[in-house]
Structure formats: structure tokens, C-alpha cells
Amino acid sequence: MSTSQFFARPQLADCVPDLVATARGDKKATLVIKNAKLVNVCSGEIQDGISIGVQGSRIAFVGADASHMIGADTKIIDAAGRYVAPGLLDGHCHIESSQITPTQFARAVLPKGTTGGFFDAHEITNVLGLPGLRLMLDEARQTPLAAYMQVASCVPSTGPDMETAGAEIGPAEVAEAFTWGPDMIALGEVMNFPGVVFGDEKMIGEIQATLRAGRVADGHYTWPVDDWRISAYAASGITGCHESVNAEDVIERVRRGMYAKMRRGSAWHDVAESIKAHTDYGIDTRRMMLVTDDRSPESLVDEGHMDFVVRHAISQGVRPVTAFQMATINTAERFGVARDVGTITPASIADIIILDGNLADVNVVMTIAAGQVVAENGKMTVELPEFEYPQEAINSVHLTRAVTEQDFVIEAPIQSGELTARAIGVRENHVDTTEDLVSVRIENGQVALKVEDGISKLAVIERHKGTGNKTVGLASRVGFNVPAAIATTVAHDCHNVMIIGNSDALMAQAANAVAEMQGGIAVVTEDKIVKLPLPVAGLMSNAPFEQVAEQSRAVSQALYQAGCTMNYAFMTLSLLALVVIPELRISDLGLFKMTEQGFVKVPLFIEEQ
Predict the structure, then answer these.
(1) Which residues of the chain have pLDDT under 70?
(2) DSSP string, 540-594
(3) Given this model, what pLDDT does residue 1 score?
């Protein structure tokens, strides 16, 4: 029997006769959990002495005594007074950002209590188009996860005049993807928010295709929330957004009928401030959700997944049951699937976690997915099959030639002296950057940097179509204090080859190492090179997640030793090519700045204006 059959999630209508018969006791349960302390996210209370009866993949009974449905073949789990809660749901997550495939992601998060998620696979879609999205869906379907996929809305994130992606998605592609099944749940984050506000035909068409398919649309809005533009964005029908960084952001989104998704990724620490909308201002939490967005593989091992986010929210003063609601029923209701997931109630799918100790500790000791025990005491108890990727998915780096030192030369409009230039200012634990104006020396008509300047070069080379497009700019606060470079094909969201460094020679070496691996990360110093191969679309590894986590940890350590000491530094650096985030970004087609009017291309040197 295949994994997808074993963890089947049949339609409720097909299960009704068996569920009702089991609740009566005429049909014996396949699983009974007794002596549970139920975290009831529907009523917001803790119920002692509860039993839960399961028939196949769904719950048939919740009450004080399930003895009438226990038969000779019924599996019995004695919770012994421990807390039992619905499996945790991630309301906004990019699996690819964890640098592991859906199968390995499931292995990593199921023991932590995550039983489902709403996954925006716009990373692989930017590389491979709809076929890449379909690969993610097909692989996720063979895991025990309740894996709901979203159609990537912004491929590329802005437009072909600003960046080069491996594909392009429009209204027709969105409509097609929604025919693949009900687990194609929503339109992924609409990052081109200026396009929505100012009536871009493609963006409006994608939202219309989503609404006509009876799905919901997710947002990504980073303008201030104190003017008319947030209402224009909401008027499009977008009803969820994860870009809240403070209480005001949450409050204004909720007031306009949106679900405010509060993010605690590896390097995005937004919950502490955004949760104050509830803890300080008393905003109703039913439209507030906890999400991860991006989690590095080593942070999945070291900190956890949604269990970590819930624990963190509780530490900020949120009542434990309320925090669980923000990661279960609120999320399910937002996407219209609360009949299936997000609660422990009769008829719901049996995605259940058992926790040891205090509820606030979120210490998951058993995970049940679709009525089957899949993890216990931090380890998977079932084997998941390998997923076969086609050649086009693992040969996706197409450079026109080898990269050389000359590719990183920045020509200046003067022969010698100093010029003021724009540098992308990196901010630790934040997705946004600053536009830093820095003074750079010019020698022989070229920018001349020294290690002690504290400024790095930052380049993006197109890798999908062999165009040869390339931009070289500057970055500040990266931290390199020795000659060093990092190259990566994980460069949100178009995922071209991005190189950051203070040595042209090492930058070339790092770029060529990544190309030779057909994708991944390479950190190069004068005495060593550290690599993390990511052969699937240049984004993911299908190696065991434990191995990838250690390789990612080695990348972090190499960056740290070179002076880049930011928390989960790679996660922050990987966003420097994401044009839709303020304030200054780079793509293969130039430098772009976020303004009141939208995205504007700007020159590197101020004097050029």
C-alpha cells in the first residue's frame, strides 16, 4: 500500500455512514484515545477526562466514555491525563526555504506536531513554472501531511522588465492549477501590491481567476497601513497577509477583514511586536494567525517548527489555548477547511498531537496524522517513500560561461577620487533593507574596495535562460572582515545566481562552485570552501533533513568565521534580490527602490542623477 493510500484523507461525505455507526458503537473504532486533557480550540477551554474515537482517518466521537466503540482490533492510546490538541497548521510557509523536499520536510515537522500547512511553492515555480508547482503537490500528497498548496501569484515577483525568472504565471495558469484538486487551496502571496493597488491587468486577472474558482487570495503588503492604499488592496478580494511587523499592521488588517499572519521564521522575528495587537490593545484573535514563512533546516532541528512559534507566542503573554487557536482553528477557518482540519471534533480528520508537561511548553510526544501514529518521542514511526524528480528539475542552472573576476568589476563615471553610491543595508532578523549612501574610492575608473571598508559587492547573474544578464551593486553591514564570498541559487524570488563578497576572485570561485553543483550554496575564504548542494531546482536537497541541517549549519559557521555574525545569516542574505521588499534591492536587471508609487529602478551612483 502506498503512503498516500495509507494516509488517505477521503471526503467527509464518503465517511458519514461509518462515522455515525462508530459513534453509536455499531462499528468499532480503529483508534481510541482515552484519559485526555483536551485543548478545545472551538470553545477555548481545557476539558479533563475526554476520550476520542477514530474511524479510519476521521474522528467519530469526542466525549467522556468511548468504551462502547472499542473492539478487539481497536488501537487504544492512554493519554494518562496529558494534553491532547489538534495538529498544528502553518498558515504561510515556503517548503523550499527549508532547503529540503516535501518528503524530508514532513519528516522534519511531523514529530514537532505540525500535521498540515498552506504552502506557497512560488520558489520552485519561479524556476520551473507550473510543472514545478505540480511536482511539489504530487510529492506532498504522498506524505502524511494535510498539505494544501497555493498557486504562485508573482512569477516573477514584479515583472520581466525588473527581473528574470525561469517562467511566467498569469491568470490562465492560475485557473489551470485550480483544476488539479481541492488541495490547490488559494492564490499565493500577491507580492506585487503596487500592481494590485494601481490596477495592473495581470495581477487583477489572477485574483479574479482565484475568486471565480471559489478560492481565497493571500497577500503581501509592505506599504504603511495608514492611508487609502490598504483599502484598495483589500478591495481586490485579498483576505490574508503575513507582512505585519508591529501591532498597528495587525490591527489595520483585521479591521479591514483580513487575516493577519504573525510571522516567526528563523530570521524574521515579527511576533513579539505584532502580537501586541492582542496583548496590549485587546484585538480579537479570531483573525490572527501564527505562521513561519521561512525556517532554515538547522532551525527546524534546533528550535522546531510551529511548536516553536506557539511556544514563543505564549512567552509573549498569550493565553496558551489562544495561541493554539492561532495555529489551528483560525488557520483552518481562514482557508475554509475547518470541517476537515484544525479541531478535535466529530467528523474532523484525526490530526492529533499529545503533549507532555505544561501546555505552555508545547512538548509534543506523539503525532497522529489521518488517524495513524506517525511520530513518537521526536522520531518518525513510519517510513516515507522517495520521490523521483525529472532531469529538468535537477539540471536548472544555465549560465552562458564560467564566471570570472572581471564579472564583478564596477565601472565608475570618473577615473579617480570618491563617489557616493547606494548600498543595500542588511538588517539582522528583518526582511526589509535600508538604502545606505556610502562613499567609495575610484581607481582607474573602477570601484576599489578594501576589506576594512566594511562594504561588499553584491551581484546577480541570470541562470534560467542563458541571457547573460548581470547586475553588480553594493551591500553594507554584511560583516565580512576577511576576504570572503558566498554564492547561492537561493535568491528570492527569481532564484538567479547571487554572489556577495569583498574579493572578486573569491566571488568568481563561489559562483562557479554553485554552477558545478547545479545549484546550492558555497562560502569561500582564502583557506577553505564550504558547500551545500541543492540539486532540486537549485533550491532543495532530497538528502535526509538531518544531513541538510548539518550542511546548513556548516554554511552558517563559515559565514560567522568570516565576520558575518547575523542570526541565521543566510536566510537574511537570500532575500537581498527580492525586489518587492523595501527599501533597496537588486536583480539581474538593476537596482530597484521601493517608493510611494511602487518599484523604481535607480542608478548605483548618486552622481548619475
Answers:
(1) 1-6, 608-609
(2) BB-S-HHHHHHHHHHHHHHHHHTT---TTHHHHHTTTT-TTSSSEEEETTEEEEE
(3) 34
